[in-house]
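User: My instructor asked us to take a sequence, write out its structure as tokens, and then describe one feature of it. I'm not sure where to start. Here is the sequence I was given:
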Amino acid sequence: MSDLIRTISISSLCFLSFFCFQVGIFLWSGHQLKQNGRRTLIFVELFTGFMLLFDALAYIFRGNASALGWYMVRLSNLFVYICNFSISFFFCFYVCEFIKQSRLSLWVIFHPKSSVKNGIPVQLFIVFFLCLAGICLIVISQFTNLFYYFDENNFYHRNTLFPLGVGLGLLPGLITLTLLLQNRKKMPVNAFVSLLFYFALPLIGVFLILVSYGFSWINISLGLGALHLFYSSIKLMEIEFYSGERAHTIISPVYKSEVTSIESRKRVRRSHFWQTLSISLGGVLVVLLIVSIKGISLPEKTLTIEKPYTENDPSKSVCITFSRNADKHWVDEGDPDRTGAQFDGVIFNNMSSTIITDWSFLISAPDGCSIDPGPWNGTFALSEGSLNVKKPHAEDVENIHGEDFYTITPLKTLGFGCIMYTPHNYQPLEEKIVFTYSSILKPLTNRIFNIFLALIFVAFVIATTITLFEGKLIRVEEENKKLEITVKERTKELEAEKNRSENLLLNILPKEIAKELTAHPERTIAKEYPNVTVLFTDIVGFTKISGEMTAEEVVTMLNKMFTMFDERAQREGIEKIKTIGDAYMAATGLTEERANEGAAKMIRFARGLLDDVHAFNANSNIKLQIRLGINSGALVAGVIGKTKFIYDIWGDTVNVASRMESTGLPMKIHVTETTKVQTADLFQYSENSEIDVKGKGMMKTYFL
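Assistant: Let's start with the prediction itself. The structure tokens for your sequence are:
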């Protein structure tokens, strides 16, 4: 890592750490933690701040070989991983609180069975156990170098199982993603997008760190995501930091609870399981593919070979031969005690999936040896009684074929050699060899890995297929439910419209007539009734009164009084026939039975009308009086016309009732003898008087 990248990383981490701590303290202020509705968000912010701080310390003390540097680098990297898993858990917990619309107790984690029954998403517990497993493995890695290790210069290096650590860190996020997607309809769109954006940033960081190592992609993206989460929470929750009124509130999304069948709930749970599995396997596949293309850097290894091999031993992962060429040796002309010879070495890479990227070779050599300079397949040097051979690098003179030429691909060999002058008795086959090499594992060349990758891919295809199939079935069921609801709503609307039409018809026609007209609209409706009591009312001096009022005042006055009459008629079972100007006409006893109580009901109704007039006068500047006339007898009733039809009654009974009204006295009930006979036992009448009724002659009438 260059000093510039290191400086940028440390500065970015410290800057974001400061802001995350500031945000966490800001959210905490003014409330006790147990009562704070943003408690989970506080944990996310504070753990993010600690993670960024420890990551910055790891960069600062990197390469510091002092005792302080040794401890700081190891502890900082340990806490970075622990904070990463903690953030994953609390973010998932935060999402669950959005879904449940309430601040959840952290103790639900320790009661998974009852919590799931109470509606807590099961994904929360899966994430918790994955994070717990990740923390345990990280702690174990401190003693076993499971995921990473530190060299003698106190530099951090990835180890063989580093991708497993990345996968463990990725899975909680992928499961949280499925939780978000599955419950997106239960959240407002802005809340869903905000949470999805926070998740997306670290996910991008995971892939960047697999592709490009050296910059703290994941941690910086988590810091940016945490700040975004805070700023969006201000808008979403309208935080009132110094008010206790909303201390328990986290947000108020529209939580759509629907009544579903047990089978539908089971299908949704199955769908959620396959969705989670599909997305998780997809994430693992992407990680494995990136790792496969990029390769896994393996830690440096050192082989100590007590006696060099004379030929390759395929049972060994790496085999080294180094010997003096029997055909190419001569006596040194300048020094008869030395022999000049060509020394040949071969490195056999017997590993099927590993590329040896860098190597060095060390073998004992007696004093007095020398090497001819030349462009050999290796950088040769004699020092302290040893021959040192190293792989040529880009800047070396010996690099005549290019640096990639000197890497040793799986199941291949690389030869090297030099001309060296040694004492006559020097035999390299009797000397110890120390071979050190670095390598990269290429998983795609490994059969077991390919089988494992194929199994994951098959499982991913199966899970995705089932997810799509189950999702299609659920969508079909939802469409069917929507259709059923629509049909029910339309049916209710039709029923309501039918009821409105019937009520409107009942306002015009008697119930029996309305039913008959509805059933047989083409039929002429007319009936004879043997004993109907008819009432007429009229306002005394209406012409004079209306002449002193505006048209609006006249209509308002009539509407107010006739409304009172209508309400009374409806309460007492009287059939209103019609109004003509200031006249009000009603009837009762519209039945085929001769013996009915229509006359008594009409007398009581007439008395009530007088009470209504008194009530009207009490609250009006205009004082009104009415005349009432009542008669009982046979008549004909029916519906006239096809458009704007009306229900009406005809006959002498109606005419005589009208005469009773016109010849009556103000605020008196004027009845015929027919009506009086039917109600004599119930009401007390005045002495009879005789009036001349047109077409009927003299008739006896009575006042109530």
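For the description part of your assignment, you could build on this observation: DSSP finds 16 helices and 19 strands in the chain. Try explaining in your own words what that tells you about the chain.
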